[in-house]
């Protein structure tokens, strides 16, 4: 196929990167376009937005390393599929929003991490957790490939957007649900709206009320921001309906309005969230 990117061409990308070059090989643009065509997540973008998204995805592929773990081969289609999803939240923010990390790694399946922590009494604890994604402060981003592959559906679940949202949040320090805001945005307005909505959401989860938003969002304010970011890009009408203040703030932060471009997804069409015991994203 003439528009497929051969491994030699990706070697060419490495070579361009070493030289600090910016030119995107036409074959890469063509491959990105082909992958983008099949993604419901990218429906409704204007020609300008789509062009910006493809270029940012290409820049990410040139600037970041994507590594397969456990002997998993990562082909060009996989790289493009990941890069397009990574680029969507930053489409109108540019490469500076991605400057905190250099590498994304892909596991062939959900992966196990071992967490160690100390409780208030000073006792050490250790537990294993199965994750589909994880964002480390200043990188890398870690993903389960099957979950990346299934993420571009409009179902409110997107592990790539989730971890990228954490990375944006961590541009000014550890993740806390309060990313650095743009000029003209008010920090106090942001904090008040998010804190109030978070507390309210935690109360509904505590009362066992099941809704469309993944209860994992009640874990802490950083997860609340990341999970709502996923929903903002996939099921924006539900976010706008149930969290109108947050929708307005997310629109200002991401400088996009997904509700204006995406089809409405009915709440009862959404799949129930996966069981919370064990599997999640970090
Ligand atoms: Zn998370």
Q: What does this protein look like?
A:
Helices cover 44% and strands 13% of the residues. The protein has 282 residues and is α/β, with parallel strands linked by helices. The chain has two domains: 7-108 and 133-153, Glucose-regulated metallo-peptidase M90, N-terminal domain (Cyclin A, domain 1, Orthogonal Bundle), CATH 1.10.472.150; 172-274, Collagenase (Catalytic Domain) (3-Layer(aba) Sandwich). Strands 1, 2, 3, 4, 5 and 6 form a six-stranded mixed beta sheet that branches. Helix 4 links the parallel strand 1 and strand 2. The longest helix is centred in the last third of the chain and has 20 residues, at 187-206. The structure holds zinc ion. Residues 162, 166, 223, 226, 281-282 line the site of zinc ion (ZN).
């Amino acid at each position: 196929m003439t528009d497929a990117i051969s491994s030699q061409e990706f070697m060419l990308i490495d070579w361009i990167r070493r030289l600090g070059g910016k030119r995107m090989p036409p074959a890469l643009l063509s491959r990105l376009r082909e992958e983008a065509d099949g993604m419901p997540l990218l429906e409704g973008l204007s020609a300008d937005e789509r062009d910006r998204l493809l270029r940012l995805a290409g820049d990410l592929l040139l600037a970041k390393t994507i590594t397969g773990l456990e002997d998993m081969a990562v082909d060009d289609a996989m790289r493009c599929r990941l890069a397009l999803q990574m680029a969507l939240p930053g489409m109108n923010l540019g490469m500076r929003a991605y400057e905190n990390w250099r590498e994304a790694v892909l596991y062939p399946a959900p992966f196990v991490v071992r967490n160690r922590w100390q409780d208030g009494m000073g006792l050490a604890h250790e537990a294993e957790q199965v994750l589909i994604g994880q964002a480390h402060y200043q990188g890398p981003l870690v993903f389960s490939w099957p979950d990346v592959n299934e993420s571009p559906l409009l179902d409110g679940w997107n592990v790539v957007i989730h971890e990228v949202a954490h990375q944006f949040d961590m541009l000014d320090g550890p993740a806390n649900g309060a990313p650095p805001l743009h000029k003209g945005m008010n920090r106090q307005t942001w904090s008040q709206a998010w804190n109030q909505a978070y507390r309210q959401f935690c109360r509904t989860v505590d009362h066992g009320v099941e809704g469309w938003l993944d209860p994992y969002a009640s874990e802490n304010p950083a997860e609340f921001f990341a999970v709502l970011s996923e929903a903002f890009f996939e099921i924006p009408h539900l976010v706008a309906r149930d969290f109108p203040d947050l929708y307005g703030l997310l629109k200002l932060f991401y400088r996009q309005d997904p509700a204006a471009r995406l089809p409405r997804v009915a709440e009862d069409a959404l799949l129930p969230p996966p069981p919370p015991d064990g599997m999640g994203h970090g």
